[in-house]
């Protein structure tokens, strides 16, 4: 007889009890878990919750501003920090996927630690950890907790990691988190968002990252995701995105041969990301989307669709 309403009531009461008038800092990612955790804490302690939303420059097109506005509309006490340049600098010249993940994790921790220091007398770190994260962290391969761990080995504990931890969602599964969010009138757009990896577009640009490659991939991704929404396909897909391949393919423009970028589109059905099937998107959708990408995104002359299932292929390409 678990209901989202009773969960909210009980959790808010418990949080009030535990936290009293203490200050709490929380990192928002734009994803479902951190957003719902923030809403619960907001209900319990209001302005004593200090949210930080970092732009790593590897988010989807316009996502930082749109999501930040959404958070502000929800009444959250949120600070948006645009650290794009810092992340791009740290990524310059890195090709190896794990090196890229580590660099992003390291810079995130630095930025977050700087920001947490701006809040005087903060006592708690809140996290949107859910039950499956706790199981997975045992065998984590690059999730947020794994990046924090590898940082520890290098440089000692950042100050915010010495805070007391509060994790209001740690007993819930994803679908329960969504129901809890809905019962607090959170926007369906926010609750229904596809999962998006912490390192963002960095692991969908195979090889090294440049600002120009990020721009190209953001444009391609925005057309693909926008069309999934237009065709009412977005909600029947578990996760989708575009991958920028590290090859130039030949094309023709008038009498000239061109060598331009090739992108892969990926859309999967899954329940937990551990296994996944590629989605049988309508041919007409693929045709229109491919034409639109090639016509509108300068620098791309070829689009392919990934028809591999997991296992053995993973969802991401690196
Ligand atoms: P794979 O590619 O392993 O992806 O089939 C499974 C799910 O995990 C996400 N993913 C990540 N999430 N940091 C994250 O926060 C990462 O480094 C990372 N790598 C993969 C992926 O988007 C999919 O949902």
From TrEMBL:
<keyword id="KW-0436">Ligase</keyword>
<keyword id="KW-0067">ATP-binding</keyword>
<comment type="pathway">
    <text>Purine metabolism; GMP biosynthesis; GMP from XMP (L-Gln route): step 1/1.</text>
</comment>
<keyword id="KW-0658">Purine biosynthesis</keyword>
<keyword id="KW-0332">GMP biosynthesis</keyword>
<feature type="binding site">
    <location>
        <begin position="29"/>
        <end position="35"/>
    </location>
    <ligand>
        <name>ATP</name>
    </ligand>
</feature>
<comment type="function">
    <text>Catalyzes the synthesis of GMP from XMP.</text>
</comment>
<keyword id="KW-0547">Nucleotide-binding</keyword>
<keyword id="KW-0315">Glutamine amidotransferase</keyword>
<comment type="subunit">
    <text>Homodimer.</text>
</comment>
<dbReference type="GO" id="GO:0003922">
    <property type="term" value="F:GMP synthase (glutamine-hydrolyzing) activity"/>
</dbReference>
<protein>
    <recommendedName>
        <fullName>GMP synthase [glutamine-hydrolyzing]</fullName>
        <ecNumber>6.3.5.2</ecNumber>
    </recommendedName>
</protein>
<feature type="domain" description="GMPS ATP-PPase">
    <location>
        <begin position="2"/>
        <end position="193"/>
    </location>
</feature>
């Amino acid at each position: 007889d678990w209901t989202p309403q009773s969960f909210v009531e009980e959790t808010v009461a418990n949080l009030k009890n535990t936290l009293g008038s203490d200050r709490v800092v929380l990192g928002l990612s734009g994803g479902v878990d951190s957003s719902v955790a923030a809403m619960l804490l907001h209900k319990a302690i209001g302005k004593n919750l200090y949210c930080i939303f970092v732009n790593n420059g590897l988010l989807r097109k316009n996502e930082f501003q749109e999501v930040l506005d959404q958070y502000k509309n929800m009444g959250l006490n949120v600070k948006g920090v645009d650290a794009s340049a810092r992340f791009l600098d740290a990524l310059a010249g890195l090709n190896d996927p794990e090196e890229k993940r580590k660099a992003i994790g390291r810079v995130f921790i630095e930025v977050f630690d700087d920001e947490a220091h701006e809040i005087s007398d903060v006592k708690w770190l809140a996290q949107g950890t859910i039950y499956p994260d706790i199981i997975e962290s045992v065998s984590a391969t690059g999730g947020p907790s794994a990046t924090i761990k590898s940082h520890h080995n290098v440089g000692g504990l950042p100050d915010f990691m010495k805070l007391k931890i509060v994790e209001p969602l740690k007993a819930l599964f994803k679908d329960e988190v969504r129901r809890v969010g809905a019962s607090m009138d959170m926007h369906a757009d926010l609750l229904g968002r596809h999962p998006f990896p912490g390192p963002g577009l960095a692991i969908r640009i195979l090889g090294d990252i440049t600002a120009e490659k990020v721009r190209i991939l953001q444009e391609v991704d925005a057309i693909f995701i926008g069309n999934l929404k237009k065709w009412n396909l977005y909600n029947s897909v578990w996760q989708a995105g575009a991958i920028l391949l590290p090859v130039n393919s030949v094309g023709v423009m008038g009498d000239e041969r061109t060598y331009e970028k090739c992108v892969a589109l990926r859309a999967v059905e899954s329940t937990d990301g551990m296994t996944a099937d590629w989605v049988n998107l309508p041919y007409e959708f693929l045709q229109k989307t491919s034409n639109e990408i090639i016509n509108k995104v300068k620098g791309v002359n070829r689009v392919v669709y990934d028809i591999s299932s997991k296992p053995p292929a993973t969802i991401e390409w690196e």
